[in-house]
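Hi support team,

I've been running sequence recovery on a batch of backbones for a student project. Most finish fine, but this one hangs at about 90% for roughly twenty minutes before it completes. I'm not sure whether the input is malformed or the queue is just slow. I've pasted the structure tokens below so you can try to reproduce it. Let me know if you need the job ID as well.

Thanks,
M.K.
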């Protein structure tokens, strides 16, 4: 394989942390190369240097035999390097073609662009209609908009940052076929993911980072997921253990919960029913955008419902707001960590105060007890292994996975009676994900009732006692996880989005 890109001794330091230290490796033409590492290992920083968003302190890059030092993404794109981000930068009120045009330097006339989008989406098996509003698209379809935008520039290297975290299993299949096709045509792919089984299925080579340094390289097909996880963390992992304790009295009762979505292009909840006992974990699956965010808001009290719809420990809390529900023992962690779960510009201490004030008694007689708040924040950082230079850094300076550990840890550390959590291990590495799942199970063991909303089916099957699926705002009846087959799960989730597979016709 001829070499496409070579990195030589790339180093990038931030105050208090060396994000990349002397990183060297090469990517061949058409190679699918995985970049692996724990949260905060430096993966995002590295790809940002390749994409011209971050300038290395030292080191150099060579692209097709020539020195390569992009000073901005437009320059990287000009030289054939494209990137699909974890968070999409799309405008919901514009259609697909208009969104694609916005990302192009010299967009052709709309009619021609629409035709090119159709051609590329057909050629690469990515079903996408250029005339549809982005606001009406599923997460998977939005991702296709970004990918098609990249493909229109005919990239030689395509960087993908955790592309499958928003996808259904069927959408992952579609994406992988596209990536394999691109690779066969000579486009190299640099692929960041925490999902090791996917990496084994897709990638030719892997480079593993730990605390900013390359610690290993391997051929993923020749390694087990467990071996790769252990290379990442440098330790042996233990899977979470579920207890078989009998469940207690009813802790959360949801009756005919209906509520209009407060989110533009959101999904309203329609007559959701379930009952949850102390110590029980209910796993809620579903394709993204089927009411998951709304359910979390309606349970946390941020989205008001009617009296009688939500009972916590037998008390009707249906019409109460978040503070009253928190006082009654319900804590929640939404999916979106920056902005919703955490205020980006505030420090970890301040963010700890925002959610912990009430249940941890951090405000007394109208005064904030800063010493106690600091202890609370420091305790979360320690117990949940949050990698950060300190508790006074702003939330936005943490890597995605470390902020996730902080947000989840903050909620679980408030002696909750009821926990509602959306995508608890989103963007979190294998070791930390196992630790978070274990922490959830420990709280259940201590008597908390837990609602886990997740798109990760393996996660739900691992920790939940009962299972239900959201489908256009409706919840299926709950079923015990034990004895539940994958086909049944598919049927429960089914019908939400018509996943047409465009390949092979
Ligand atoms: N703009 C920044 N300012 C300060 N520190 C930063 C900045 N960007 C990254 N860091 C730090 O650099 C280190 C590497 O972060 P990076 O985001 O590259 O990790 P990552 O491997 O992508 O993690 P994750 O899997 O959690 O997304 C972390 O310790 C992070 O806190």
């Amino acid at each position: 394989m001829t070499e496409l890109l070579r990195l030589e001794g790339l180093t990038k330091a931030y105050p208090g942390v060396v994000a990349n230290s002397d990183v060297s490796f090469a990517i061949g033409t058409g190679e699918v190369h995985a970049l692996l590492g724990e949260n905060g290992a430096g993966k995002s920083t590295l790809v940002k240097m390749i994409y011209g968003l971050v300038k290395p302190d030292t080191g150099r890059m060579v692209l097709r035999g020539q020195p390569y030092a992009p000073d901005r993404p437009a320059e990287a794109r000009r030289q054939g390097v494209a990137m699909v981000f974890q968070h999409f930068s799309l405008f919901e009120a514009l259609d697909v073609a208009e969104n694609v045009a916005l990302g192009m330097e010299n967009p052709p006339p709309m009619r021609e662009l629409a035709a090119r989008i159709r051609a590329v989406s057909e050629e690469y098996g990515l079903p996408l209609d250029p005339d549809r509003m982005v606001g009406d698209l599923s997460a998977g379809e939005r991702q296709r908009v970004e990918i098609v935008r990249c493909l229109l520039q005919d990239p030689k290297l395509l960087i993908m940052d955790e592309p499958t975290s928003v996808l259904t299993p069927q959408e992952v299949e579609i994406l992988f076929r596209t990536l394999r096709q691109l690779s066969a045509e000579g486009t190299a792919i640099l692929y960041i993911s925490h999902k090791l089984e996917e990496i084994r299925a897709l990638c030719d080579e892997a480079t593993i980072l730990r605390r900013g340094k390359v610690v290993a390289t391997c051929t993923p097909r020749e390694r087990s997921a467990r071996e790769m996880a252990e290379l990442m963390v440098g330790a042996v992992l233990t899977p979470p253990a579920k207890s078989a304790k009998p469940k207690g009295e009813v802790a959360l009762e949801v009756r005919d919960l209906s509520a209009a979505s407060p989110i533009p292009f959101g999904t309203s909840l329609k007559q959701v029913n379930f009952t949850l006992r102390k110590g029980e974990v209910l796993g809620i699956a579903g394709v993204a955008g089927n009411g998951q965010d709304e359910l979390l808001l309606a349970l946390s009290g941020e989205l008001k419902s009617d009296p009688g719809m939500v009972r916590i420990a037998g008390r009707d809390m249906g019409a109460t707001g978040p503070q009253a529900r928190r006082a009654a023992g319900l804590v929640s962690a939404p999916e979106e960590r920056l902005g919703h779960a955490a205020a980006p510009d505030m420090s970890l201490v301040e963010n700890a105060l925002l959610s912990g004030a009430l249940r941890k008694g951090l405000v007394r007689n109208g005064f904030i007890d800063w010493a106690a708040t600091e202890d609370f924040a420091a305790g979360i950082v320690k117990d949940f292994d949050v990698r950060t230079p300190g508790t006074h850094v702003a939330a936005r300076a943490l890597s995605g996975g470390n902020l996730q550990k902080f947000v989840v840890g903050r909620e679980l550390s408030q002696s909750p009676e009821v926990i509602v959590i959306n995508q608890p291990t989103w963007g979190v590495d294998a070791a930390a994900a196992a630790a978070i799942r274990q922490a959830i199970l420990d709280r259940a063991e201590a008597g908390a009732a837990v609602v886990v909303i997740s798109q990760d089916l393996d996660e739900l099957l691992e920790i939940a006692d009962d299972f239900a699926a959201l489908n256009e705002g409706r919840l299926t009846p709950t079923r015990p996880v034990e004895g539940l087959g994958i086909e049944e799960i598919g049927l429960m989730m089914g019908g939400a989005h018509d996943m047409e597979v465009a390949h092979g016709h």
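--
Follow-up from support: It reproduced on our side and the slowdown came from queue contention, not your input. Residues 279-289+323-493 form a domain with the Rossmann fold fold (CATH 3.40.50.300). No action needed from you.
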